[in-house]
Amino acid sequence: MLIRYIFQRILQLIPVLLLVSLAVFLIVRLIPGDPVLVMMGIDPEERMRISEEQYQVLKHQMGFDRPIYVQYGNWLGRVVRGDLGFSLSTRQPIFEVIFERYPATLYLAFAALVTGIMIAIPAGVIAAIRQNTSADYAAMGFALWGIAMPNFWLALMLIVLFSLHLGWLPSIGYASPLDHPFRFLQHACLPAIVMGTDLAAPLTRYIRAEMLEQLKQDYVRTAWAKGLPARMVIVRHALKNSLIAAVTVVGLQTARLLGGSTIIETVFSWPGVGRLLIEGIYSRDFPIIQGSVLFIAVTYVFINLVVDIAYKWLDPRIKLE
Fold it and tell me: Which domains does the chain have, with CATH numbers?
């Protein structure tokens, strides 16, 4: 049953990815700038530095002189074969460029996910079991503040406080956790807090709402009546069933984290996929933009599939159809 469900979902995702690829391909063509001049390292104002014959030859080699549907068909055919093309600026294969950057995004996403969950679960549980108390109001105030606050503003405030005034943490840079674990923690601390707060804010509200619902159920009253310890009733019974709705939030946020947070990676000069996308937009590097967005889209749909499977694990009553 599970294998068949996964196979059916993968088949359903193919049209989604096709639409995403088509949208990205067409939108990228609307970006101002000439990719031929970008490849040659020539500013548009210096167009006269090359002859029209040179320009047309290079344009033909890159395939930009063909109809748009032919260009899309050729690009899609290469993508299906696992070839995303080459960067116009560096001439590196797109797959190679993305997977050079992906470990940095993966490490930061994991740090942010751990930070967000460590904040959200205790805050949501405490807010639920102490409803309408100061602890509840504080948790909900934090959730509202986290949802309303722009990420880039919090990032800049943390840089001003911890980097400029206190000098405790670096404001930019990256170090691999495999080579320099302590330096990685120093560099990842601020962006992980920013992204973790963004995750924790809505997750706290979901956990609180679901916990309040579960605490009113008969099975919880029965557990209390049997004299079970409070930790067992809250964690093993109420919390586990409360996580079903929270899994959706965590899944979508995880997909966004793994896809790369473009703003945060840019602010902290973190060399991830999100920053790669921004660099591709700045340099008008069409293959980089197309490959990065397609990679992020695949990440989203894969995480959504994992979330659906996680529902079954959390609640065996759910049927995968």
Answer: 17-80 (no CATH), 95-314 (1.10.3720.10)
